[in-house]
Amino acid sequence: MNPTLRTGSLTLRLLETGDASALHRQVNDWSVVRMLSQLPFPYPRELADAWIADTRKRSQQGDAYHFAIMRDDILLGCVGLVTDHRSRSASLGYWLGRDHWGQGIATQAAGRAARWALTTLPIDRVIADVALDNPASAAVLRRLGFSETGVASKSFLSRGGEHPVTQYVGTRDTLTTSDAEADTHDVAHDEAPASAPPRRTLLVVAAALIDEKQRVLLAKRPEGKPLAGLWEFPGGKVEPEESPEQALVREFREELGVELSTACTAPFTFVSQDCGRFHLLMPLYLCRRWRGTPMPREGQELAWVEAGRLDAYPMPAPDKPIIPLLRELL
Ligand SMILES: Nc1nc2c([nH]c(=O)n2[C@H]2C[C@H](O)[C@@H](COP(=O)(O)OP(=O)(O)OP(=O)(O)O)O2)c(=O)[nH]1
């Protein structure tokens, strides 16, 4: 896998051999290195070459992904994820050259990488730790929706000896889309600002397509959308001039290339839930007849799931009460 991720004016791409001198220039700075546990100071140039070669090997093996944070072809810093397959987690680390601090770059890059990992890698959690005397980095994690899990002690090569770190965890449910990233991904419009009273009701329609083997079609929310990586019933927002049924027909055509007829879609149940920044009202229809084969037209992953296995697919919280109803029906 050779992912390239974009967010705002930044591009995150895997480190390349040619990055060694730029990386060395930025990281061989006491103010940067003292916050990174595994780097010595001074940081010899040869270590940059060896480190990049190692990261390339590990990304081929699917163990770790270390991205260069690039803007206008200039390397600003790095963000990396090291996976632990056994605990289904990835540990997140990031640093920026001193000239690039204070501009929201770390939040944007770390958020993009963490959400990509939760969508793409076989993990359920992203973990991170931050030196106790690094409040700027802790603020980045909190802004992204990470929560504190405890304090531990960790050995820092650059400073010598053990130093206290605060540990954090983020999951698909807690990691929010940062404002900077929302600007570029058109995802902010379904969520009013937290302070805007009264909270608006968001009308979303969805349908459970059921095939002849009694399996239900689920779609994985793609990267860049809120709740990325969670499985949902296909559907989407009802536009102002549409009926819910018209919206359903449009969404299935756009997202899956499937033609539904309103005569074959039966109202089944609905969800009405406070989702924080909006109130979700989601009628769910059942549909056993349609035209065409569902295709992932928006890059989403699709799965036909037997009723008994629906629990194995993490879904947004409002969907959870629907699962027992479907199981009973099927
Ligand atoms: N389609 C769908 N949305 C769900 C489900 N459960 C749930 O909480 N939602 C929420 C997630 C989103 O906040 C909202 C759907 O918005 P969306 O952004 O996916 O809608 P859309 O397809 O119109 O997206 P877009 O074109 O505006 O990007 O409803 C579900 O099972 N299906």
UniProtKB/TrEMBL annotation:
Coiled coil: none annotated. Its EC number is 3.6.1.55. The keyword DNA repair applies. It is an enzyme of class 3 (hydrolase). Its cofactor is Mg(2+). InterPro entries: Acyl_CoA_acyltransferase (IPR016181), GNAT_dom (IPR000182), MutT-like (IPR047127), MutY_C (IPR029119), Nudix_hydrolase (IPR020476), NUDIX_hydrolase-like_dom_sf (IPR015797), NUDIX_hydrolase_CS (IPR020084), NUDIX_hydrolase_dom (IPR000086). It comes from the Bacteria. Keywords: DNA damage, DNA repair, DNA replication, Hydrolase, Magnesium, Metal-binding, Mutator protein. It catalyses: 8-oxo-GTP + H2O = 8-oxo-GMP + diphosphate + H(+); 8-oxo-dGTP + H2O = 8-oxo-dGMP + diphosphate + H(+). GO terms for molecular function: 8-oxo-7,8-dihydrodeoxyguanosine triphosphate pyrophosphatase activity; 8-oxo-7,8-dihydroguanosine triphosphate pyrophosphatase activity; 8-oxo-dGDP phosphatase activity; 8-oxo-GDP phosphatase activity; acyltransferase activity, transferring groups other than amino-acyl groups; metal ion binding. Residues 10-178 form the N-acetyltransferase domain. Pfam families: Acetyltransf_3 (PF13302), NUDIX_4 (PF14815). One of its GO terms (biological process) is DNA replication. Residues 200-328 form the Nudix hydrolase domain. CDD domains: NUDIX_MutT_NudA_like (cd03425). Belongs to the Nudix hydrolase family. This is 8-oxo-dGTP diphosphatase. The lineage of its organism: Bacteria, Pseudomonadati, Pseudomonadota, Alphaproteobacteria, Acetobacterales.
